[in-house]
Give the backbone structure.
Amino acid sequence: MKVLKSILQFYINSSIHVGLSCFALVQITLMVFHISQQSEVGYFAFWGTVVGYNFVKYEELARAKKIKMRRQLRWIALFTFGAFIMVGYYFFKLERITQIVAVVFLGLTLLYTLPFFPNKKNARNWAGVKIYIVSFCWVGATVFLPLLNAAVAPTISIGILSIQRFILIFVLILIFEIIDLRLDNPNLRTVPQQIGVKNTKILGFVLLVVFCGLELFNINTEFLKLNFGIAIGIVITLFLAFANEKRTKYYTSFWAESIPIVWWVCLLYY
């Protein structure tokens, strides 16, 4: 049992799970637009998410020497280095325009993490900015990159999907922020810190209504896929409704982040 728990902790702490969520959303985008043979962009998104999230989670702590390299952290560092190599490998398999846009989103990630100016805070510490940067980066990685790589022309459907994806990630982050409310620095000015948990949930519910409503206008969505999209909206609504500060970290870092994976599997085998 102890071994299984260690494996699960490594799986979550090394960002493999969130990487799979990103991979799943890329696959959903490709399925919605009936695009095949684009595995390289999915793998790039997966490995890029692993590297990006591990860099964000551990870089500042390591740089400030606030953590010791415990055994699991050494394995995570080694795994992240291997993931970085895989990112480079799949980066050069992408189309040139996709590479350029990917570099732009890499720049956003670095801006979010590193203080570029002496004695200045990074974007992660800019009051209230985190949720928008992260949501936008996920839209870029899971919508813009796969469609650019497949040379899909801009359409209304892409705009609708982008808005939906932004809402999806935004609401999932709201759940994280509610769970982490006791631990977050008050200066971060997260949404629950600014408007309270009750109003945060109301905001999330309204956004999820918009998310489900947009499914009706997406001409690329077949009837059964439409039902899955609405079902996912309902599931996220339940996760948001039952979110509170007493929930364990697995409520978000495993179960909530599993939602895109479950969505993809349902579409894959329906």
In short: The two ends are 34 Å apart (CA to CA). The chain has one domain: 2-269. The chain has a mean pLDDT of 85.
